[in-house]
Amino acid sequence: MRLYSLLAAAKINLYLEIIGDRPDGFHELVMVMQSVDLADRVTVRSLGPETIRIRCDHPEVPTDGSNLAYRAAALLVEEFPNIMAKYGGVEITIEKHIPVGAGLAGGSANAAAVLVGLDLLWDLGLTQLELQTLGARLGSDVPFSLVGGTAIATGRGEQLDFLYGLDGLWVLLAKYRQLSVSTPWAYQGYRQQFSHTYVSDDVSRQARQARVRSGAMVTALGRQDGHQIGQALQNDLENVVLPAYPQVDRLRQVMAEMGGLGTLMSGSGPTVFTLAATLEEAETLKHQVSERLADTDLELWVARFTPTGVRLMD
Ligand code: ATP
């Protein structure tokens, strides 16, 4: 029986600016994305019956057609209609380590891993560009999740310019177990309150993108300067999520007070992260935050910046 096992890394947003509306209902974004080595393990295995089966050890992750990993496999079957007649079906096993509904793109990482795994299992020979184009049809974060590392993401997040990354930094991630934030809700809320800051014509959008490309975050990454990266952290969605979720707001405040290089909410939240220069610093921060908040519902992880998105295991 053939099988492939892959590691699928989570991402954090070091920078997220919303610059406009799009006719397709999404928002025009300028983001800086970073992979971290908090990763799910995804295994694709040939199956006799011509079907797609999902198994996952996390109770909140659906195992039906709504799972993004299922949708990735279904998209390949749609593109290559005879593939199951030749190779049979597939069982996809997801071992979850990335928290669910956390703003860390766990579902997108799983979909990216399935695209890479099935490309191998079904001998499809897809190029990186073909994988990314298919990924963009599944979700805005999937193209980044495929490659990983450090990138400027524009459009709805699927247009990527990869940057020279920084593998040395560490990050403390924290999330309340019972809390998740709906991504569509966060973007709608932002639109309701801040659409006056949007630009609509292409020239102004390109100017905003250029401002980020030559701005503090990208400059700090270029200089490999952790302190400057920490100071340049920005996420527009904090303006809607933090006022609506006082628990997340307080968590962010406490984490920022404890030190580190800088603190931010990732994506639409509710995960909050603090950057740290060393593993020891990240572990100390973890200890301090959990002592200070003393809440059994609070989950904390220490992870490291990583240059890869999906990685094949031996
Ligand atoms: P994003 O920031 O991309 O909106 P997220 O990181 O906040 O996503 P995910 O963990 O990707 O959140 O999942 C969001 C929702 O999608 C979950 O509540 C879950 O019901 C559903 N879902 C579908 N497929 C998956 C999957 N493979 N892993 C996790 N959640 C999934």
How is this structure best described in words?
This protein has helices at 68-79, 83-87, 106-121, 128-138, 142-147, 183-194, 202-213, 216-223, 226-231, 238-244, 246-257, 279-293; strands at 3-21, 27-47, 52-56, 89-95, 150-155, 159-162, 170-176, 234-235, 262-265, 272-276, 298-304, 310-312. The chain is globular, with a radius of gyration of 19 Å. The relative contact order is 0.19. It is built from 12 helices and 12 strands. By secondary structure, it is α+β, with helices and mostly antiparallel strands. The chain folds into 2 domains: 3-164, Ribosomal Protein S5, domain 2; 170-304, 2-Layer Sandwich (Alpha-Beta Plaits), CATH 3.30.70.890. The strands form 2 sheets. Strands 1, 2, 3, 4, 5, 6, 8 and 12 form an 8-stranded mixed sheet that branches. It binds adenosine-5'-triphosphate.
